[in-house]
Write a structure and sequence with these properties.
With 334 residues, the chain is an alpha/beta fold. The protein folds into 2 domains: 7-110 and 256-333, Periplasmic binding protein-like II (D-Maltodextrin-Binding Protein, domain 2, 3-Layer(aba) Sandwich); 115-238, 3-Layer(aba) Sandwich (D-Maltodextrin-Binding Protein, domain 2), CATH 3.40.190.10. The protein is built from 12 helices and 13 strands. The strands form 3 sheets. It has a 5-stranded mixed sheet with strand order 2-1-3-13-4, with helices on both faces. Strands 8-7-9-5-10 form a 5-stranded mixed sheet. It has a 3-stranded mixed sheet with strand order 6-11-12. The two termini are 34 Å apart. Residues 10-27 have low confidence and may be disordered.
Length: 334
C-alpha cells in the first residue's frame, strides 16, 4: 500500500520531481506532468506508480504537491497536463484558464471525509458541533477564543492550539465554506500547512490541540491523533465508509477531482494515463483509504474525455453537502 509522504519526503519529492523531470524530458518525450492537492496526491501517486510499472518506464509521470490553488495556477498557465483538486474549480480559475485557452475535463475520482482530530489525551471533546467549530475558526475568534472552555463551558480552562490547511489548499477552502459559511474566511492565528503531515505532528504533540485534514491521513495516524464526532444537527457522527456513502457525515464529506487539459489528452501518454487511472481507481482509491465512486462514475469520466465534454458542473462556486448520487446525476448531464 502507498505510504503517505512525511514532511521531509515532500521536500525531497519536490526536488527529485524537478531533477528527474529534466532527465525524463532529455531521455524520453513521453512525460505526464501533474500537480496540485496534497489530499488527492496519494491516489494519483498510487496510479502513477502502477502505470509506470505497467509501461515498463516508457512513460514518466511526475506528481507535485502545491495545494489545489497552487495546482490550478500552474494548470491554467499550461504548465501541467493534470491538476489534482480537493474542491471544484473556482470562477477566478475558470477565467484564468479561459484567458490562456485551456479547456479541461472535470473528473471526480473519490469522496473524502474531512476529519476533525484532537490529541489522544483529550478526554473532553468526543463530539463537537458545527456551531462550536465555527466559534473556534471564524475570523472573530482570532485573539479572543483562546481556551477550550470559551467554546463550551463544560470543557477545561486550557489553551486551545489549532492546526489547519494552508490558504492554497482546497481543504482550507472547503472547510471554511462548510463550517464558517464562506470560503477562506478564517482566523489567522493557527499553524497552517499544505503538508498534512505537519498538521498530524502538531496535534500529536500537544494535548490541547485541534486540527483538520483528509481522512486518509487520519487513518494512517490513528495511534497519534483521535477523530472527533461532528454534529451537523443530527447528533455526532464519525467519518467512515458507511457515513460518507449514506450522507450522514455532514457537512464535511466532499468529492475530490482531477482536471485534465483537453489538449494534453491528445498526447497518447496522457490519454493512456487517464484511461489507466479511471480503470484502476476503484481499487487504488480504496487502498489509500479514500472512498471510491460507483464504477459507472469512472466510465462516465472516460466518456466525457472521448467526447471532449469540457467544463464543470459546479459553476465556479464552492458547494457543501453534495451527496454522491447528486454528484453523479450532475456529471451525467454534462
Amino acid at each position: 500500500m502507498l505510504k503517505l509522504p512525511d514532511s521531509k519526503t515532500v521536500g525531497v519529492l519536490a526536488v527529485l520531481s524537478v531533477w528527474f523531470g529534466a532527465v525524463s524530458v532529455a531521455g524520453a518525450d513521453a512525460i505526464v506532468k501533474i500537480d496540485g492537492s496534497s489530499t488527492v496526491y496519494p491516489i494519483t501517486e498510487a496510479v502513477a506508480e502502477d502505470f509506470q510499472i505497467a509501461n515498463k518506464g516508457a512513460v514518466k509521470v511526475t506528481v507535485g504537491i502545491s495545494g489545489t490553488g497552487g495546482g490550478f495556477k500552474k494548470f491554467c498557465r499550461g504548465e501541467t497536463d493534470i491538476v489534482n483538486a480537493s474542491r471544484p474549480i473556482l470562477k477566478k480559475e475558470m477565467e484564468d484558464c479561459k484567458a490562456a485557452g485551456i479547456q479541461y475535463v472535470e473528473m471526480p475520482v473519490a469522496y473524502d471525509a474531512l476529519t476533525v482530530v484532537v490529541n489522544p489525551k483529550n478526554d473532553w471533546s468526543r463530539v463537537i458541533t458545527v456551531a462550536e467549530l465555527k466559534k473556534i475558526w471564524e475570523p472573530a475568534a482570532q485573539g479572543t477564543i483562546t481556551k477550550w472552555n470559551q467554546v463550551n463551558p463544560a470543557w477545561p480552562d486550557n489553551p486551545i492550539k489549532l492546526y489547519g490547511a494552508g490558504a492554497d489548499s482546497g481543504t482550507f477552502d472547503y472547510f471554511t465554506e462548510a463550517i464558517v459559511g464562506k470560503a477562506k474566511s478564517s482566523r489567522g492565528d493557527f499553524t497552517a500547512s499544505e503538508d498534512d503531515n505537519v498538521l498530524v505532528q502538531g496535534v500529536a504533540s500537544d494535548k490541547n490541540a485541534l486540527g483538520f485534514f483528509g481522512f486518509a491521513y487520519y487513518v494512517e495516524n490513528q495511534k497519534k491523533v483521535k477523530a472527533v464526532a461532528v454534529d451537523g444537527g443530527k447528533g455526532g457522527v464519525i467519518p467512515s465508509v458507511k457515513t460518507v456513502e449514506d450522507g450522514s457525515y455532514e457537512p464535511l464529506s466532499r468529492p475530490i477531482f482531477i482536471y485534465v487539459n483537453i489538449k494534453s489528452a491528445e498526447k497518447p501518454e496522457v490519454k493512456q494515463f487517464v484511461e489507466f487511472y479511471m480503470k484502476n481507481a476503484p481499487t487504488l482509491v480504496k487502498e489509500v483509504k479514500f472512498f471510491p465512486l460507483p464504477v459507472q462514475a469512472y466510465a462516465t469520466n472516460l466518456e466525457h474525455l472521448d467526447k471532449k465534454k469540457v467544463g464543470t458542473v459546479f459553476g465556479g462556486k464552492p458547494e457543501v453537502g453534495l451527496r454522491i448520487e447528486e454528484l453523479l446525476k450532475r456529471e451525467a448531464k454534462l
